[in-house]
Amino acid sequence: MLQTGSDQVRDGLSLEELRSIYARIAKRYDYQHALSTGRSDQRGRKLVVEKTVREGDSVLDCGSGTGTTGLMAAGKVGPHGKVMLFELSEEMQAVARQKVNEAGLQDRVEFQTGDIMHLPFDSDQFDVVLSTYSVCPLYDPRQGVLELYRVTRPGGKLAVAHSAEPEKPMIKRLANGVENLLWHLPSLSMGCRPVAVLPALERAGAKVLFSKRIGVPLWPFLVFVVEKPAAEVTG
User: Fold this and answer.
1) What value, to the nearest 5°, has the Cα angle with vertex 39 and ends 31 and 60?
2) Which helix (H) or strand (E) holds 59?
3) Residue 93 falls within a domain, yes or no?
4) Within a 13 Å sphere around the CA of 115, how many CA atoms are in the beta-carbon half?
5) Domain range for 178
6) Which letter does DSSP use for residue 12 in this model?
């Protein structure tokens, strides 16, 4: 469950509900998400990639959806880097595969399906971990983002874009009212709701490098980048 600033509790959807929703909307996801966010979703994707990914990096795009963020990362890592697209929905990943093939980046991109809450990767594995709009639907967003942090290598970066609550009280009340209606229409809400996960990462020792709110007033996003401290060298 997630406690929102409006003092109401909105449960996350189950894994099977999410899988079913994204199977149904996979082919229209890009258009639907861009329309519902006033195209600010692309700004968030560009920010997380520009702030983190370098040539030669090993990158995990977690909750990679239709591959838009992962393709941006693949363009930056160059021929010696790798990008893993990790996604719950096979239907969403099928769209991503088509995009990767059309871009001719098959040699830089790998695919795997699974649950963000239980990543099948070793700790401290990736130079960069990205999550664009994929922690918002999780049944435990804070634990999910800590799982992303676990697989980030010491000295590496974790970058996240997620739904946030409006800061102005009047707009917040209006947004919550609209979201309460959309919550009963999962194919429109996509299981997303405002979350707050950065404090959990700070408590885990993450160093905040960048934080910015973007998006339309009713449905803003928080985009942030944290660094996992490098292991101390002892004498």
Assistant:
1) 80
2) strand 58-62
3) yes
4) 12
5) 2-227
6) P
- Whether 165 and 194 have beta carbons less than 8 Å apart is answered as yes
What is the rounded distance in angstroms from the CA atom of residue 162 to the CA atom of residue 154? 23
Both tokens of residue 12?
């996350």
Residue 234 within any structural domain of the chain: no
| Coil vs helix vs strand at 110 | strand
In a domain, 16, yes or no: yes
Number of folded domains in the chain? 1
Helix (H, G, I), strand (E, B) or coil at 63: coil
Task: Report residue 179: phi and psi, to 5°.
Answer: -65, -35
In a domain, 232, yes or no: no
* CATH code of residue 165: 3.40.50.150
Could you tell me the two tokens for 111?
């695919």
HSE-CB of 190 using CA atoms within 13 angstroms: 22
Q: What is the pLDDT along the chain (235 residues), one digit of tens a residue?
A: 343 433 344 577 888 999 999 999 999 999 988 887 878 899 999 999 999 999 999 999 999 999 999 999 999 999 999 999 999 999 999 999 999 999 999 999 999 999 999 999 999 999 999 999 999 999 999 999 999 999 999 999 999 999 998 888 887 887 777 777 777 777 777 888 889 999 999 999 999 999 999 988 778 999 999 999 997 544 4
Cα–Cα distance list, 14 to 9, 39, 70 (Å): 15, 27, 25
Q: How far is the first Cα of the chain from the last one, in angstroms, to the nearest whole number?
A: 45
